Amino acid sequence: MNSILVRVSLALALLLASLFMLSCGASSNSRMLQSISVSPQTANGQVQFVATGTFNAPPFTVTPLPVNWCVQNPKSAQAALCGAFSPDVITSQGLANCETLAFSVTVNAEAPADPKLPLNTQGVPGVVGSATLVCP
């Protein structure tokens, strides 16, 4: 009889501890990236772009936000692939230049919505912010 009482007491204690942790914010809902803004919004020549992330929980903003930088070629129907078209236009640190371009491009900053995931996670829903690099 005592062993049954001990087991029931332990089960109740675990249940109460779990409920307490959930009520204190240890739930499955975690901090998620909501949006990315890129500054400056429009630039020409050589420029350092900076990404700022807005999150749903503190800290609410992060600047600079680690992102994958890429450009979208307006002369191609293909979506921008970070690193595929980008290396000679924008570095992994967001430094862009018009040296190899004769037209303007959209500069994208992308990161996974879950900040615990690595940047190069393919196929994971992500967040994208953009700006324009104006080239002659």
Tell me about this structure.
The protein has 136 residues and is an alpha+beta fold. A four-stranded mixed β-sheet has the order 2-9-8-6, with no helix packed on it. Strand 4 and strand 5 form a beta hairpin.
Tell me the strand order in the biggest sheet.
2-9-8-6
- Beta-strand proportion: 25-35%
Shape: elongated
Number of strands: 9
List SSEs in N-to-C order.
Answer: HEEEEEEEEE
Coarse structural class: alpha+beta
As residue ranges, the low-confidence spans are: 10-28
| Largest sheet descriptor | 4 strands, mixed
- Backbone CA Rg: 23 Å
Cα separation of the termini:
86 Å
Helix content range of the residues, please?
10-25%
Average the pLDDT over all residues and give the rounded result. 77
Number of DSSP helical runs: 1
Short description:
By secondary structure, this protein is of the alpha+beta class. Helix content is 16%, strand content 34%. The N and C termini lie far apart (86 Å).
